[in-house]
Amino acid sequence: MVKFISDKLLSQHTVSVLITTTAFVTAVVTLLIDLEMKLSIKWFILLFIIATSLVIILCKIIFDLWSIKLSTKDSEEPISYYKDQKLLVIRKNKNIKTNMLVGCYFIHNDVEHFLFPGIVHHDQEKVTQIKIISQQVDENIALPENYIKNMRIRPVLVQDAINEIISQYHK
User: Fold this and answer.
1) d(CA 137, CA 23)
2) Cα angle at 60 between 47 and 67, to 5 degrees?
3) Tens digits of per-residue pLDDT, 59-106?
4) Nearest C-alpha neighbor of 86 from the set 61, 114, 116, 123
5) Distance of CA 12 to the CA centre of its chain
6) In angstroms, rounded to a whole number, what is the distance separating the alpha carbons of residues 98 and 122?
7) Is residue 86 left, alpha or beta, with left meaning phi > 0 and alpha meaning psi from -120 to 50?
8) What predicted TM-score, i.e. pTM, was given to this entire model?
9) 6-15, 56-65, 101-110: least confident range
10) Distance (Å, rounded) from C-alpha 84 to C-alpha 56?
11) DSSP bridge partners of 89
12) For 151-161, what is each residue's pLDDT tens digit?
């Protein structure tokens, strides 16, 4: 975090914004105030320039940190499951696109276990529907009643699932 802030603080963009702000404030002050009248106003102007520069730098750092926080996750948790249609509904994710093959994983003791492959069936404005292709759950994993809360949808498939999908369509 400290390295990120120091990199952003010393970036070329921040320095150019600082120089531009200083030049603008200096130009406005020299137009409106006679600097030869009082000596103390020069110190006030310097303090104002430094304070303005610090506020701009802090705003830029906050904005950069906020934009990093909003980056897309690599997996999504299902919101709901429609058993009769074999559909999972997840939140919209930029990494998961229409007609993409995805993997559904179950998290058990902090380890992800592959459950079944799915395909992005319908991409809506706020949610995405995942159609389950085949559902072969590993018997070694004890699935609780509300196992949907421990599932993750990732745009990654294991090799066995890919081979199974290929064999289903090449019969």
Assistant:
1) 66
2) 165
3) 877 877 776 665 567 888 888 888 788 888 998 888 888 888 888 888
4) 116
5) 25
6) 7
7) left
8) 0.54
9) 6-15
10) 55
11) 80, 129
12) 888 888 777 77
